Amino acid sequence: MNDASMSAEMTANLSKSLDFDQAAKPKVVAKDVNVFYGEKQALFDVSIDIVEKSVTAFIGPSGCGKSTFLRCINRMNDTIEGCVVKGGISLDGDDIYAPSLDVVELRARVGMVFQKPNPFPKSIYENVSYGPRIHGLARGKTELDEIVESSLKRAGLWEEVKDRLNEPGTGLSGGQQQRLCIARAIAVSPEVILMDEPCSALDPIATARIEELIDELRANFTIIIVTHSMQQAARVSQRTAFFHLGILVELGATEQIFTNPSDKRTQDYITGRFG
Ligand SMILES: Nc1ncnc2c1ncn2[C@@H]1O[C@H](COP(=O)(O)OP(=O)(O)OP(=O)(O)O)[C@@H](O)[C@H]1O
């Protein structure tokens, strides 16, 4: 390719990614986020808009700060001693670090699914009904039953568990447990779901099931997924953010990031030169 056609192609791609950005409404907006663990700085001036009702993947080599940034969005870093977050993050314009903000309420708006499925040591029913109960989302048993059923249906688990709702959640297979954790997250009607490597403990079939589910859920939720798998990022996300050494190097439409990244570090990572 000569320089002229390369630059035409780059301009076309850039305008494609700008179109993509303009059509989308930002749900989470981070501005100049810096995170420290004691003396060590883990994130440097991260600014990003996460658009609503889509999947954004965070990729990058181990230790680059993906999970640290994810945890900033529901203030899970507050629970880590010595961790200090500076900068601003808003959810639909609300400053989530405002002193008046109720963190319990924030975590109902921003749910989280972890790497290892972690159902409570309770029944399947109680795993899903716990959140709606403590947040007062149901006006009685019938409504609670309805929330449990609809959450399990949306998580694609209902048919497999409807006859064993009183059995322990921990008795399910790994993939089913992860779908139970997704049902638990959905049950409180969050706006955003954070997923920290949700498939890393699962086999390929269970992984495919969760990936299909993520694709269905994006119609109603804003999803951010940290993944080590570039194939997974390419399959499930519409936007991809590449982190390196605590810096957000590049954010763009997933297709553009994987076919025509603008930064050499992204190019080196996606072509397997490091990471
Ligand atoms: N609780 C903690 N205490 C101290 N340092 C931490 C803590 N958690 C993360 N770090 C450090 O912050 C940096 C970013 O870590 P983080 O886990 O966010 O990266 P990551 O990109 O998610 O990595 P991985 O892909 O391996 O999960 C790393 O240098 C890590 O050692």
UniProtKB/TrEMBL annotation:
SUPFAM superfamilies, sorted: P-loop containing nucleoside triphosphate hydrolases
ABC transporter domain sequence ranges: 28-270
InterPro entries xref list: AAA+_ATPase (IPR003593), ABC_transporter-like_ATP-bd (IPR003439), ABC_transporter-like_CS (IPR017871), P-loop_NTPase (IPR027417), PstB-like (IPR005670)
Annotated GO CC locations: membrane
Classification via Gene3D superfamilies: P-loop containing nucleotide triphosphate hydrolases
Source species, domain of life: Bacteria
GO MF term set: ATP binding; ATP hydrolysis activity; phosphate transmembrane transporter activity
GO biological process, one term: phosphate ion transmembrane transport
UniProt entry keywords in alphabetical sequence: ATP-binding, Nucleotide-binding, Phosphate transport, Transport
Family from the record: Belongs to the ABC transporter superfamily.
Name of the protein in its database record: Phosphate ABC transporter ATP-binding protein, PhoT family (TC 3.A.1.7.1)
Species for this entry: Bauldia litoralis
